[in-house]
Amino acid sequence: DLWTVGWRVTAEEPIAGVGLNNFGVVSRSYTREPGTLADVKQIERGQPVHNAYLSFLAETGVIGLALYLALAVVAVRAGARAASRFDLTGDSAAATLTRAIVVALVGMMGAAFFLPNGGDKRIFALMALAVAALAVAERVRVGPRPIATSGL
Questions:
Q1: CA proximity to 102, closest of 134, 122, 127
Q2: pLDDT (average), residues 54-70
């Protein structure tokens, strides 16, 4: 029922949505439209859509969802590039850590399909860590390291 109402809200305001965190406020007015809803109590309590992507679509429209997904794609690609870069430098520990960050981010993004966790700070922290890993990886020198010489 939450998803049905989420799609109804999206159909009414597809471009800009109804406003961030406003789904619980406006969802009640969408229960009176034609169609069967089995349990309206969740909607009456103002519960969020149990799908972060549908929630972004209903609340921020296509614009907000596109920006969120673009940010996620940039972060995953940055993490993958960072891991490859760390592999080239021979830093397997940093490469493994970066891959763990990417896997955690992809896992949380997958879980977001069934949870209202679009605004979860941990997702944004993982995105930031993936991009930061790329910044660190690009500063690491690729190739043989200079041989230290004694002052002779």
A1: 127
A2: 92
Distance CA 58, CA 3 (A): 10
Nearest to 65 by CA among 11, 17, 124: 17
The CA–CA distances, whole Å, from 13 to 20, 44, 117 equal 13, 20, 21
Residue 95 DSSP label: H
Tell me how far apart the alpha carbons of residues 11 and 31 are, in angstroms, rounded to a whole number.
14
Whether residue 101 contacts residue 128, with contact meaning beta carbons closer than 8 Å, is answered with: no
Give the separation between CA 68 and CA 18, rounded to whole angstroms.
16
> What pLDDT, on the 0 to 100 scale, is given for residue 144?
58
Start-end of H helices in the chain: 2-12, 23-26, 41-44, 52-89, 92-111, 121-139
Question: What is this structure's pTM?
Answer: 0.80
For the stretch 71-85, pLDDT in tens is 999 999 999 999 999
